[in-house]
Amino acid sequence: MTDVVFALAINGLVWGLIIALIALGLSIIFGLLDIINVAHGDLFMLGTVGGLVIATATGSFWVAIVLVPIIAFALGLALERFVIRPTIRQAALTIVTTFGLSMMLQEGVRATYGPQPRRMAPPIGGTVPLFGIDYDIYRLFAAIFAALALAAFFVFLNRTKLGTRIRAVRHDPETATALGIPVARVCGITFALGTAMAALGGVIAAPITTVEFRTGVDILPFCFMAVVIGGLGNLQGTVAAAVLLAVMEGLVTSFANPTIARIVSLAIMSGVLLFRPHGLFAGATR
Amino acid sequence: MTIDKPGTKNAKSRNTKSRNLTRRSFLETALAGGAAYVSLAHDMSAFAQAGGSIVIGHHCELTGGFSSWGYWHNKCALAAVKAINDQGGIAGRRVELVTEDTESNPATGTRKLRSLVQRNNAAFIVGSVHSGVMLASIPVATELKTVYFSSGEATEATGEKGTRYSFRTGTDTYGLAAAGAPWAFQNLGKTWTIISPDYAWGHSHYKEHKAIIEKLGGKVHDPIFVPLDAKDLVPYLTKIPQDTEVLFSVFFGALSVAFYTQAKSMGLEKTMKMYSVAGTIEAIAPADLKGAAEGVYIVENFPRMLKYKDDAFHRDYLKAIATDDVHGREAGSDKVNAKSHSWQSWENLFALKAAIEKSGWKTKKDDQGVIEALEGLEMANSLGHAQGSKLLRKEDHSGIIDCYISRVENDELHVKKTVSRTEMAQMMPVRFDLSKQPL
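^ Those are the sequences you sent over. The predicted structure of the assembly is below.
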């Protein structure tokens, strides 16, 4: 029993780190643009599909993991310019807009790539014994890669000129404008970064899960839970919440039905909304 | 229809032709057009004399979670209508197929069903393969007094939730359990665990298989029901008891791929036999799973490989729906036929044709005759019934068909055992008599 508890806790940590990468993209977009991006899960889906297409075409997963975020970044710039910017600062309208975008992305992939689910073979095969179960080595790689990507993002945000500008615009867009920071361009880049992170999460998760046009639908609620519990717009809080939620679900699953674990997560989110509406972590608000 | 852009080669060519129009070419064109019109008018007149077209509704999963199946159901229904119309229609009347997308959603499905019947005047419905949509739709079809063929597998559709109006030519969970469970019990193992989505289809499979395995003296562990939105199945797979000999999985679509991938990576096939039903691998080629489904036993309703039912009808059917005879792939694409289910969207139209012609149906007022003709309808192996001879059993409106137990070997589905429809009838005694319900 103890073995299963540890195994599922570690599996929760692994999954939590991948989710954190995706949820961080959602959080940064909300934090800067006040957009609840309902299409964020579909950007993750585009990452899985793009990853499989490029890996199949080039024969290399590693090419896909480099190219997909770059392509997604460019797509993010275009989406921000032509879909998001016309409705920016109108929260209700952005929900409708991104919902429409979500449907277009899903149906676009279904119509072109096809509706059938597919598998992407992991670039690293084999298993390791982990507390009584044979654990996929690729999952451990995926967790390490996700952790490195998260660390790289925070280094970028805190140690580069562009990162400083993004933080400045998040903190006070009017003053940032007065100081000569090109706010519109920073917003575009931030949305593109969020898109690239979701797509990168998609490439990493593709060999673990399934590649199909609806892959992003089910991942979005968990990301939203992480963002809400971590504090809307609180980037570190979002990462911590994603990891904690996934580990907690893993632990609960070891002695109860996994569905109960999800109910516990929802109960925690409800509690946070009730007692700490700005998020679980200190300084949760922007 | 294609439209040539101005200035393109084709457009210029056409302009040149129009400028060069002569009296001879005008007469040639006029005569050809006249001949085509006369031919078409004669054709339409032949159908019109028989009483206008018969509108049949197709309640199909064109989008949503079941769209990889729905694509094939739609393709088969369209091909069947074309074949029927090419042969003179039904009782001399042209068939018009009107398709509505259920979006793989029960609420949408019921709304679209009303639209088919009330707005499009569909006289009969070739219905959904999605168990949730199917079970939500049967009461609506019954309220609208419209014959509804479904192809979902939840047994309730031809059982406790079935009505005089609901029919199914294919198998259900009751039939699949009868076809495969005794053989799997004898050949694969006696201690079973069932893992399935937390949804009508999975629950129905658990109930039917548990009854048979326990009757045979086996043991069935508590089921593991997985939420439909699960991405990571490891927490569920670790719940499988160690003494499991047969892991019976019932998934579809993306969850199916996730299950095979993650079960394989955990090496479950090393300690237990993997057993499933065709729904788990519908619209998926084992080759696309890159070895994850190798060795899995699967109960098929229609063998994916032609060689296991090699006759002219099967060959012509595959030709009509442009599918290859080994992997079930569509010609010119990598789509894989949901073959164990989609044949019903082809065959149901031929079953309706037989019943309409047998009963002399003219309008909705004559529906009782069609229902009575369908109850107990024998269908001989033919192009219209390429899956094989079958009976639409009078009492429970269930198709009694041949089934096949296959194994994935080298990315192909090889049949290991054929369960004849005679054996099926013996193993699945009638439990409900829908034929006594009033109309």
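Chain A has one domain: 2-275. The domain at 2-275 of chain A is CATH 1.10.3470 (ABC transporter involved in vitamin B12 uptake, BtuC).

Shout if you want it in another format.
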